[in-house]
Amino acid sequence: MIRAPDSTPDPLLSLYGERHRLCPIPNSELQLVLSLDRQIDLIELEQLCDAVGWSRRPLRKVRKALEHSLLCVGLWRHDTRLPKLVGFARCTGDGVVAATVWDVAVHPLYQGAGLGTQLMAFVLAELQGLGVDRVTLFADPHVVEFYAAQGWELEPLQRRCAFWYAP
């Protein structure tokens, strides 16, 4: 007997697009999803930036920055009605040799569970998939150690800049 393919629509696919993946977390009642395809709402992004203590930028500039980015990754708390943006990262670059990671943020309520590490691993995997083998980032001094713990090489003064090279 030949079975028809399952025609049940995948809610994650319809909400987050082809390029998404679930984040493994200890709380089985919560689903967190990384996505390159779900559009970032500027108001939600502004709320996330407020939550992590960043200064506000004009929304027209933020929109333009997103439009000119190589990658924009959202980390979403899954809800079939209204997913909530709880993390974000974006990259600029040539898409061939080098890229720079900007604006990495995870909402304080979701920090400490390894989500920032998963977000960065997802970003690096996507960049490697493009063939990019050199990545830089600029971080506030109080979070530089977060990147060093993931294997990023810090600039000589170990203050703001870190580098990642493909193995």
General description of the model:
The protein is 28% helix and 27% strand. The protein is built from 5 helices and 8 strands. It has a single domain (11-129), classed as Aminopeptidase, CATH 3.40.630.30. The longest helix is centred in the C-terminal third of the chain and has 16 residues, at 115-130. The radius of gyration is 17 Å and the shape is globular. The protein has 167 residues and is an alpha+beta fold. It has an 8-stranded mixed sheet.
Question: What keyword list fits this structure?
Answer:
single chain; 167 residues; alpha+beta; Aminopeptidase; 5 helices; 8 strands; globular
Strand order of the largest sheet: 1-2-3-4-5-6-8-7
Strand-residue proportion: 25-35%
Low-pLDDT parts are none
User: What is the end-to-end distance?
Assistant: 48 Å
CATH superfamily: Gcn5-related N-acetyltransferase (GNAT)
* CATH class wording: Alpha Beta
